[in-house]
Amino acid sequence: MFYEVIPTEIFRTGGTVLTYSSPLSLKPGHIVLVPLGPRLVTGVVKKHVKSVDFPVKPISRLLHPLPLPTHLLKAANWLSNYYLAPLPTTVNLLIPAGLAARNAVPPHSTENTPPSTLKLPLIPLNSAQEKALRELMGGSGNTALLRGVTGSGKTNIYLKLAENALKAQKSTILLVPEIALTSQLVRIFEETFGDRVIVMHSNLTMVERRKAWLKIHSSASHPLIIIGPRSALLTPVHNLGQIIIDEAHENAYFQENTPRYSALRLASFIASQLKIPCLLGSATPNLVDYHLAHTHHSLVELSERAKSTAIDPKITIIDLKNRANFTKNRYFSNLLLENIQQNIENHHQTLIFHNRRGSAPLTLCENCGWQALCSNCYLPMTLHTDNYTLVCHLCGHEEKVPKSCPQCQTPGIIHKGFGTKLLESELARLFPNAKIARFDGDNKKGQDLAHLYTEVKSGVIDILIGTQTLARGLDLPHLASVGIIQADAGLALPDFSAEERTFELLTQVIGRVGRGHLDTAKVFVQTYQPDSPVIQTAIKTDFPTFADHLLKTRRRGQLPPFSYIAKLSVTYKTEKTALAKIRAAHSELSQIENLTVSPPQPAFHERVARGFTWQIILKSPSRATILAALEPFSTNKNFAITLDPPSLL
Fold this sequence. Notes:
The strands form seven sheets. Strands 9-10-8-11-14-7-15 form a seven-stranded parallel β-sheet. It is built from 17 helices and 31 strands. The two termini are 50 Å apart. It is globular and about 85 Å long. The relative contact order is 0.09. α13 (498-510) links the parallel β25 and β26 (522-527). The chain is of the alpha/beta class.
């Protein structure tokens, strides 16, 4: 018998399938090991072929007795077509690493121990949550948006939906931006549903991840709840009943490397294929999703906090331009410092938010102007004073701080700007008896973060310092105040999503206080732009007004959701070649009707180890127009295509 197989590695430009022989009776979706040149690679059977008139190689081995669910094969094909990604790269997303190893699949792997029978606990809902649940269950479309203010109890609705699915013998996929930063939600689900919950995350070893994948694949008769990042969406779940995406505004749901895709769009596609609900949950939804939900009448809102004891925080705006507010310290206003001291005396916590890690983001020579740039990325390196090293936050390259300028040999090396590590050292000097903890990208993931969170929740920590790591949905019972060091820092970025991202972060971090644990809640917002509509709407947690403001701006600029955009970038060893290639592409694409093409421009991170990157931005009211225009570039390895990017940086 003959079969068309999709290898998980690109074997020729535009190639998608190869034909092999096998004495086995195989079905579409079976995972096999096939020869590809001198090597053996994994592949997925596409279909049976009656006969061939050319010599073929035999399939080496069947890797799992069960074929993948049909909806995953459709998803891989959809990803390939919708994002102009090679089919082998999208199929590769379906197969766990190490599956081809000998004994990777144990004997009788189709048999699975069912989860222990547990009496499902009562999940209480308040009247607002019950109303939202009824609206969600009564909706006509597959995808709905639940916009709930921070502390409104979205998690309870997720729990109730998962319970309903289990009663109907259906499984649930719950996507989270990052497991290490959503441990609280995971723990609630595990406490509620026990061993029916399977958690997928990056800290699992290859063997642990494969075991979880095999358990999911072999549980057709046992409904499960799978929790994980975007990759969990492509686990082989049988009898899938619903998809829930928490913190749906997060950029972590967009895969930046090939194949580039949005997990939100993929979830909607899978839901439509299976005719099951897909729920996007967020306090600050992506503007495109919000607009679509409004247009299709699939928006459900929770506008009140769940706890009756919840209070609105008292918000104080502090103008950074007025240095009279900063006579005691250059980073922390007098009012904020006084509040931190009061909190320490009252055994309450303070959260200090600044979305830049490290100690100083710029190291230079005050004599000749030399800058410390990464030798790989040619970007400014950040000083980390705890081990006195320079670190590139893009690639992780580290160097010792030079004692003198490498260019002019003078000792005048200075450091500019500030990050969370510098703030930590300043606070340690100002409050020597306080216990201080820092949450940012320099923390180790997994257990270390979980241990830190346990200490914070118990009240051991006096002052928390962090980046967006702390802005996500943590419930901190001892937190009394939030200090935002420079609220408008993100507005300076040259990107269409800068306002949206700034509003999201501010709203999320403000939402950490006033959740009903304490009778006090204060927020200190330090900013150079106190009158900015982004700052003003964020401090009022007024998403509808902000969305209206930004939709008007986007409409004028013909930006999403009023047009589709794509980024075409090219990287070559020399800037001359990169510029010549992108100019040629610009000339070709500018001839296409109904397509707006920006002038060639250097990428935000122009110079990397592979060379120089230049790009052009495409806009059109028709996504099909963009797809047709970019299709000829999709097979050129020097070009990178990003469709519907959440950011242009």
